[in-house]
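To: structure subgroup
Subject: Chain for Friday's discussion

All,

I'm putting the inputs and outputs inline so they're searchable in the archive.
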Amino acid sequence: MLKGEMMRVRDLQQILGKFTDGEKGTNISDCPIYIETKDGYMEEVRFIALEKNKLIGSPEPARIVLKHENLQRFRSHTYTGPKKNHGI
């Protein structure tokens, strides 16, 4: 997968397999999963949903959606802030 490309389930499976080195029951297997919001907050993934597209013939017949609560407990250490548009 190249940077900027949409991630697919198979990509996520491959990445998670590399994290755990194919071994179940490692410390990494017990790590919580977070997503970084547009404001830079780390939010715990609370639910994963499979949503089917209702448009017939859509190139995206279904999608996996990671859902979180908006708790804003802490910011990501890699957050760089919003990109500012100075009219240039």
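Points worth raising on Friday:
The first helix runs from residue 9 to 20.
The chain has two domains: 1-30, 32-79.

D.
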